[in-house]
């Protein structure tokens, strides 16, 4: 990655708030592993963006490989997953939105995926690596997505498990633009969201093992908000050094 300091030194610097580094991600086996919390991001009725890095390792999916799942609480349940045709998919009781035939998650390749929604402007857009948006008109189907009392990464209930790695997951209370998402993509290397121009709109940021690596086990912290994810059916070795760069 073109750095002169060691990983342990970089972790110490990050803990002290002196620098940003991305050395870890969380790996899911596609069988029974997940990250779980008793509260979800509060999307409500506003604009929002979900941004995440994914390294998918299995082309199969049965009913679809779930990446995020919000249930219960207030408003509509919602999910983000790779559907049976292999597209990225958003689903809720308000509207459903697949990424389209030209935006397909690759295997064994790090990619940044973004779902940017302007409920105020009635548009929802999927982006791959910050570009080539697939935009849908959601006029008449917007509403309250609320806050859930169950939030899961990597599966839905006890099925539809995701196989691969997730890294640098962020939630925003604004619809990020293509130019802003391209800046986040940063030519394929995650960047420090705390220094991003729209950092005031960042509501949750899951570093997926950074800065402490395996010492973070058995939880994944929220670097911006207050949601702590519990590693279920996982070990410290699920925090890996496979990262986008």
Protein described:
The strands form 2 sheets. Strands 1, 3, 8, 9, 10, 12, 13 and 16 form an 8-stranded antiparallel sheet that branches. An 8-stranded antiparallel sheet has the order 7-6-5-4-11-2-15-14, with no helix packed on it. The chain is globular, with a radius of gyration of 17 Å. The chain contains 2 helices and 16 strands. The relative contact order is 0.26. It is mostly beta strands and 245 residues long. The protein starts with 6 loop residues before the first helix and ends in a 5-residue tail after the last strand.
Structure in a nutshell:
The protein is mostly beta strands and 245 residues long. It is 7% helix and 35% strand.
Shape: globular
> Spans with pLDDT under 50 lasting ≥5 residues?
1-17
Distance between the termini: 7 Å
Helical fraction: under 10%
Order of helices and strands: HEEEEEEEEEEEEHEEEE
Oligomer type: single chain
Q: Indicate the proportion of strand residues.
A: 35-45%
Please state the structural category.
mainly beta
Q: From the alpha carbons, calculate the radius of gyration and give it in angstroms.
A: 17 Å
Mean pLDDT equals 92
- Largest pleated sheet: 8 strands, antiparallel
What is the strand tally? 16
